[in-house]
């Protein structure tokens, strides 16, 4: 039987997608979203199949082309068991004021490399580990519990708002009456090939 389905059942996405932005511009706007939100949700999969999310704050990017995310975490936490079970993870950020959001899909890499930890460490992180007063677990950069989770993305999708709250509300109201589609922003994708290209520049 020949399908009579409408060729465009998701006009919102069709209208919002913008594939004409350069990789450098995409990453620039992505960094602005992450910086404005600060805290992301890292989602991992347990051996049971259940998915668990927790709030994590990434370190600041080291270059304008960086697409990976680096988090400090306690090696004794369950998230490490889940990453070792399945390294595929997602990290999402959402700015409720602007409606901009970002979603990283990729692989988590665990590291306790001393030089890497030293490079990204700052004293404020000590509060998340605490000094156990045993002479070993001091909550500093040499604490054996300290580990880095680096999320290396395969694909990044994000929405960047292009209109303010008043304009969004006005456009939504008009389209609700006229049957139009409100798209107060742009949906962008940083592809795997774009990530590989830009990381080549980042690592130089």
TrEMBL record:
Transmembrane regions listed in the UniProt entry: none
Q: What are the General stress protein FMN-binding split barrel domain coordinates in residue numbering?
A: 25-179
InterPro entries, per database record: Split_barrel_FMN-bd, Stress-Dev_Protein, YdaG_split_barrel_FMN-bd
Q: Which organism is it from?
A: Lentinula detonsa
Name this polypeptide is given: General stress protein FMN-binding split barrel domain-containing protein
User: Where are the stretches annotated Disordered?
Assistant: 1-24
